[in-house]
């Protein structure tokens, strides 16, 4: 029964937030949403959700508030202040931030929310737009065990791998590591694509056989068609991966971890963004390798 499930408010209905909120509606949750784009609110209504005109209005009667916004400044903007979540949600509300932000921002948010009687989980995701649509995301969570247990059914409507990684901020730390691995993997695949094409090999055949061996990866499987078709319609934008590489390199410096390959790839992502390609999918790292290899794009 719908009435037996917690009432959910979803803040941020972008590339990831829209399909994720719709999956909760399909699972029977009563979802109220707020975002800045009217067309996204119309989409939520069409899926069976309720649109709210402000954060304050959206969170007032919620049992669970989920945020899915681009970066730390946006999380802080919707959480704090007189019109924010902490001032307007009821005591006892569970706030689940599924954005990818700095671990320290998550720790600070949990501390501030505790003073208001609001519980917090940081729960960033991996899997991109396709994973969000198909409800097969990997969800890495930081926070208290009891809050995680309470949120587990909701997480299972959104993803297939759901793990409590440790205290507040741990989910964000694991997400930073995820983004490091993904970026380095995409870069390696992009270099292989340019090498294969310049060598005159049938690229489709080559990527098929590579996918079946030790070089195979979720990245290669998900991004193979992007490489083959030069289709860089954003599933996860370079702008956002640039932000995430800043998070991981800064966090690694704080704890004294050397990321020599990660640092190079972070600069290549920054270079691609500086070339005006920040709005493209992160598989567009291929364009950087092509430029370095003499192509005029």
UniProtKB/TrEMBL annotation:
Keywords: NAD, Oxidoreductase
Pfam families tied to this protein: NAD_binding_11, NAD_binding_2
Oxidoreductase found in the keyword field: yes
InterPro entries per UniProt: 6-PGluconate_DH-like_C_sf, 6PGD_dom2, 6PGDH_NADP-bd, HIBADH-like_NADP-bd, HIBADH-related, NAD(P)-bd_dom_sf, Tartro_sem_red
Coiled-coil portions: none
Xref: SUPFAM superfamilies: 6-phosphogluconate dehydrogenase C-terminal domain-like, NAD(P)-binding Rossmann-fold domains
Annotated 6-phosphogluconate dehydrogenase NADP-binding domain residues: 7-166
Domain 3-hydroxyisobutyrate dehydrogenase-like NAD-binding per the UniProt entry, residue ranges: 169-288
UniProt enzyme class: oxidoreductase
Domain of life: Bacteria
GO molecular function terms listed in the Swiss-Prot or TrEMBL record: 2-hydroxy-3-oxopropionate reductase activity
EC number: 1.1.1.60
Family label: Belongs to the HIBADH-related family.
UniProt protein name: 2-hydroxy-3-oxopropionate reductase
